[in-house]
Design brief:
Strand order of the largest sheet: 2-4-1-5-6-7
Number of strands: 12
Order of helices and strands: EHEHEEHEHHHEHEHHHEEHHEHHEE
Structural class: alpha/beta
Helix content: 40-55%
Distance between the termini: 21 Å
């Protein structure tokens, strides 16, 4: 099961620098001119989780496989992108295909790095990009509604979908993002997924600051945090320049020493990754054996068979039961056998809601 976040923003805000640091690669060009990213770059990054290392050590696993998130670096958007300005609609299409949006905002002053608007104002920049996404969504939903209006007359389900489309269209026409129209039931929730509205996607604002502001942020990041809170979104402060320096270091010890010297407890990228995980309402369960210890990503609230299908669809089809040990019990009792002896390994059925940190062995028959 793959989950991805599209990295968007105006040109020269640090998107590609962030992407390079996230994926520890130089796949994306990070040049000081607009549109240096001509094709969307895609990279996978491991989700930091100390629990997996502890489980692997106790289980004597030969291999450790962490959970992953996918990041898509999308070319800088400008005013008029929804009408083809800059690199236009092709990149808006790339955003539609992602699960969430990471919106990078420039929160630093630097005369050597040009800004397309001539000044630094992250709230204005956020509004510019959001407006372009809303305009593109409005164009898309107008066409979709027109395409089904005739068929809807003879089909109750399509009629309900059309009515929901009109609600979303009305919100967009009023200058409101699609996410302000909350689905009333499961049917409307399914319509949301079908519509592929960009302004329905959850947003994480990443405030890119100077090295001096990496630990505490600044007045601009405070404003972004306030905006995010009003929207029900999230905001993280990082310095893309520092993150780039960290990726050049070879060992964990060197990275830790570097972070300590500049007054940071951890890399900002870890916070971005975890925030992206939280944004998508994802959690982790583990499997552990002599060959490997592995983290598996699942949607919060998933039942055991659905979580099992992430490993293989056959696990869901032939699901019998799940043998579950909580992470705390697994560590405290020194692994599977200790948990069994203490009566802390539970037999769970199809209705069990998997919990974050569960160590699971699925039993199935196909």
């Amino acid at each position: 099961m793959g989950f991805n976040c599209g990295i968007v923003g105006l040109p020269n805000v640090g998107k590609s620098t962030l992407f390079n640091a996230l994926t520890e690669t130089a796949a994306a060009q990070a040049e000081n001119f607009p549109f240096c990213t001509i094709e969307p770059n895609v990279g996978r990054v491991s989700v930091p989780d100390d629990r997996l290392d502890k489980i692997a050590a106790i289980g004597g696993s030969a291999k450790i496989i962490p959970a992953q998130l996918e990041f898509v670096d999308i070319a800088g958007l400008v005013k008029g992108a929804s009408e083809g300005e800059g690199l236009g609609n092709q990149f808006l299409t790339n955003i539609r295909e992602t699960d969430a949006i990471i919106h990078v905002l420039r929160c630093f002053e630097d005369d050597d790095v040009t800004h397309v608007e001539g000044s630094v104002d992250p709230l204005r920049d956020a509004e510019t990009v959001e407006t372009e996404l809303m305009l593109a969504d409005l164009d898309s939903i107008t066409k979709q509604a027109e395409n089904i209006v005739r068929k809807a007359k003879a089909d109750k389900e399509l009629q309900a979908q059309h009515e929901f489309m009109l609600k979303v269209k009305a919100a967009l026409e009023d200058g409101l993002p699609a996410r302000t129209v909350e689905p009333a039931d499961e049917d409307e929730l399914s319509y949301v997924k079908q519509l592929q509205m960009m302004t329905y996607k959850p947003i994480l604002y990443v405030c890119n600051v100077s090295e001096d502001d990496a630990s505490e942020g600044n007045d601009l990041t405070v404003k972004v945090a306030e905006m995010a809170e009003k929207q029900g979104a999230q905001a993280v402060v990082i310095s893309a320049a520092i993150e780039s320096e960290i990726t050049q270091l070879d060992t964990k010890e060197e990275k830790a020493e570097f972070l300590e010297t500049i007054g940071l407890e951890e890399a900002g990228l870890n916070r971005v990754i975890r925030a992206g995980y939280k944004l998508l309402k994802l959690q982790t369960y583990f499997t552990c054996g002599p060959k490997e210890a592995r983290a598996w990503t699942f949607h919060k609230g998933s039942k055991a068979p659905e979580a099992a299908s992430i490993i293989h669809t056959d696990f869901e089809k032939g699901f019998i039961k799940a043998e579950v040990i909580s992470f705390d019990d697994y560590v405290a009792l020194n692994g599977e056998q200790g948990a069994k002896d203490a009566g802390k390994m539970r037999q769970e059925g199809k209705d069990y809601t998997v919990q974050d940190g569960d160590v699971i062995l699925f039993r199935f028959n196909v």
